[in-house]
Specification:
Number of strands of chain B: 12
Number of helices of chain A: 12
Structural class of chain A: alpha/beta
Order of helices and strands of chain B: EHEHEHEHEHHEEHHEHEHEHEEH
Keywords (chain A): Metal-binding, NAD, Oxidoreductase
Largest sheet of chain B: 12 strands, mixed
Protein name (chain A): 4-hydroxythreonine-4-phosphate dehydrogenase
InterPro entries (chain A): PdxA_fam
CATH architecture of the largest domain in chain B: 3-Layer(aba) Sandwich
CATH superfamily of the largest domain in chain A: Isopropylmalate Dehydrogenase
Structural class of chain B: alpha/beta
CATH topology of the largest domain in chain B: Isopropylmalate Dehydrogenase
Number of domains of chain B: 2
Pfam families (chain A): PdxA
CATH architecture of the largest domain in chain A: 3-Layer(aba) Sandwich
Oligomer: heterodimer
Strand content of chain A: 15-25%
Shape of chain B: globular
GO molecular function, one term (chain A): NAD binding
CATH superfamily of the largest domain in chain B: Isopropylmalate Dehydrogenase
């Protein structure tokens, strides 16, 4: 069984990205589960490697095809953007530009069939903006680079997967925004992502908006019947194993014990809360709906500790694990 | 002088609840588990004949003893299930609520309230009721809690708290549609809820200085108003007012990071802005033994945190864990209350 190739973007070079990458790739089990192709600056990785005491060699590559995956070396598509003595711990346009270019290159690498999924180290929005790239974050940037009109946010913890119909909008606005078309597209993304990842006909539980799923209109203004049920019915008609709208208070427990492969949450806190309650860590953030699976660490650039060798690599390892888990299981057309 | 009665300390009063639901079965099962799971002595306010018949139907060997006075319950409890008789007007068919039995359902609640108010019972534990059946019988209250408040003749609205898995949550509004729950949020409502919660945590749970946390409504706590303004306009001012009144209060805090294990160490209870905000974390951390507690009543009342489960009634498959947890919680609360009253009443 061949290992999937995961393109790891180095993120903001002044943050903890280079360090957590070198630390994570020093774990034998990480090298075992995937072929890691870093997209970044080889010299920066060497600096970070020295800081964290890594013995790994870093091979700087001009092109992904040159990658020779081996236990003792890190393969890095080297964009040579970061000056040797560039400081850690500060917002800079240089690092912001780098973060942007790594993502851009990683997308091309995946499009060329040279990697199966992307795992992103954190970038600084401020640095990104200082470099002239006015995107709110990774997700929007990836959507633009791949020409994707709409994506969904999935959170994955060891026991639970959740995909969100709405995310960063006020609760009243979220209720107003939910409609069958949107719900149907999100269910579709959940279904497609899991099917590609090798889960045959995944069992999908869809949350309600109101307490007790509205108890047939007793609690609510018919939001379930109007906004959710038509989407669920349409998905069922395709033969998908979709259930709902279900009372959200009991659904997460049931999904956490294995009754469902994924839960569709209607709003941000509905999905985020249970993930954090059930997971020791906060869970891995995955953007779905892009032509490529993208997972991300759950922390930021941590400028306050960058360059000190103390950053924790576990979130990156978990993000890599989820990238491997959700990477398409049919061999890519290379 | 009740403590000197024939059965020792007063038992719990367990109401019938919806007779066609799982309440009777839960009572029977709780009794069979009285030793293995240390279920406190209780008296069931129900129809003894139908309880015996139900035991036979689901294959439980439970001797049922009719008692006229709860004082006998504790003595009887070891060998039989004590039932204080309430006559059901119509035969009970599991899974099919009959409004004609509504009067008996209410009589069971009424009598339990009288027994806890007189001190004959230590606390009341209520089995779930079927609101639709009671409405059809002319019941004029939104639910159990409002009815109890009316019977207790109190003016301050009681508060519902749910506890389980080391977490205590208090939904500010209960069975409102999400959209209406947001509209119903007021500074006064939150403050009032905070006061009742804090007072009860002290009186009923022995927490000297309760720490309250207020959950935010919007993602990331509204992010300074860019993701909603309820935090700025309603929740933060409520927190400030509670702090002014001397309560230990934090918030509004983003609700997604408020409920995991580490966060739970920071507070004794969370005031939640809507039903599911409270219920999702509670049911996720403790699906089976969550307890519903009414705060602010002149007596102790708890209940299991599930409904009548008409779909499985009569099948013998109902799980009594939440009812047993509710009974244990009721005993603990009653004992805190009693010791508080004792020390307040004892001369300096």
């Amino acid at each position: 069984m061949s290992r999937p190739t995961i393109a790891i973007t180095m993120g903001d070079a002044s943050g903890i990205g280079p360090e957590v990458i070198m630390k994570a790739l020093s774990h034998p089990e990480v090298r075992e589960m995937c072929d890691a192709l870093v997209v970044g600056d080889a010299e920066r990785l060497r600096t970070a490697g020295a800081i964290v005491g890594s013995t790994l060699r870093v091979d700087g590559l001009d092109d992904a095809v040159q990658a020779r995956f081996a236990p003792d070396a890190v393969q890095c598509v080297d964009l040579k953007l970061i000056p040797k003595d560039h400081p850690f711990g500060q917002v800079s346009a240089v690092s912001g530009e780098g973060a942007f270019r790594y993502i851009e290159r990683a997308v091309r690498i995946v499009e060329a069939g040279q990697a199966d999924a992307i795992c992103t180290a954190p970038l600084s929005k401020e640095a990104l903006h200082a470099a002239g790239h006015k995107y709110p974050g990774h997700t929007e940037l990836l959507a633009m680079l791949t020409g994707t009109p709409e994506v969904s946010m999935m959170l994955v913890s060891p026991k639970l997967r959740v995909i969100h119909v709405t995310t960063h909008i006020g609760l009243i606005d979220a209720i107003a925004k939910i409609e069958p078309g949107l719900v149907g597209r999100v269910i579709g993304r959940a279904h497609d992502t899991l099917v590609k990842a090798g889960v045959a006909n995944p069992k999908i539980g869809v949350c309600a908006i109101n307490p007790h799923a509205g108890e047939n209109g007793l609690f609510g203004h018919g939001e379930e019947a109007e906004k959710i049920t038509p989407a669920v019915e349409a998905c069922k008609a395709k033969g998908w194993d979709v259930h709902g709208p279900l009372p959200a208070d009991t659904l997460f427990f049931l999904a956490g014990r294995g009754d469902y492969d994924i839960v569709v949450a209607m709003y941000h806190d509905q999905g985020h809360g249970p993930i954090k309650v059930l997971g020791l860590e906060s869970g891995v953030n995955i953007t779905v709906g892009l032509p490529v699976i993208r997972t991300s660490v759950d922390h930021g650039t941590a400028f306050d500790i960058a360059g000190k060798g103390i950053a924790d690599e576990r979130s990156l390892i978990e993000a890599l694990r989820q990238a491997v888990d959700l990477a398409p299981k049919t061999k890519r057309a290379a | 002088m009740r403590g000197d009665g024939p059965g020792g300390s007063p038992p719990l009063a367990l109401t019938m609840g919806e007779p066609s639901g799982i309440g009777g079965e839960l009572a029977l099962k709780a009794w069979t588990l009285r030793t293995t799971r240390t279920v406190p002595p209780f008296v069931l306010l129900d129809d003894p004949e139908r309880i015996s018949a139900l035991a036979a139907r689901i294959g439980l060997d439970v001797p049922v003893v009719t008692v006229a006075d709860p004082a006998w319950a504790a003595q009887v409890f070891e060998r039989a299930l004590p039932v204080l008789p309430i006559t059901l007007d119509h035969p009970v068919e599991p899974g099919r609520p009959d409004p004609a039995n509504g009067a008996a359902v209410l009589a069971s609640i009424d009598q339990a309230v009288a027994l806890v108010q007189s001190g004959a019972c230590a606390a009341m534990v209520t089995n779930p009721i079927q609101k639709s059946a009671l409405y059809a019988a002319g019941f004029g209250y939104p639910g159990h809690t409002e009815y109890l408040a009316a019977l207790a003749d109190i003016v301050t609205e009681p508060v519902m708290m749910l506890a389980g898995g080391g977490l205590r949550v208090v939904p500010i509004t209960i069975h409102l549609p999400l959209r209406d729950a947001i509209d119903a949020l007021t500074i006064d409502g939150i403050v009032q809820c905070g006061r009742v919660t804090a007072a009860a945590l002290t009186a009923d749970f022995g927490i000297e200085r309760p720490r309250l946390a207020l959950a935010a409504l919007n993602p990331h706590g509204g992010e300074g108003g860019s993701l909603g303004t309820e935090e700025i306009e309603i929740i933060a001012p409520a927190a400030a007012q509670l702090a002014d009144e001397g309560y230990d209060v934090i918030g509004p805090l983003p609700a997604d990071t408020l409920f995991h294990t580490a966060a739970r160490a920071r507070y004794d209870a969370v005031l939640c802005m809507y039903h599911d905000q409270a219920l999702i974390p509670l049911k996720t951390v403790d699906f089976d033994t969550g307890v519903n507690i009414t705060l602010g009543l002149p007596f102790v009342r708890t209940s299991p945190d599930h409904g009548t489960a008409l779909d499985i009634a009569g099948s013998g498959t109902a799980d009594p864990s939440s009812l047993i947890a509710a009974m244990r919680t009721a005993v603990e609360m009653a004992s805190f209350r009693a010791s508080g009253k004792l020390s307040a009443a004892s001369p300096k």
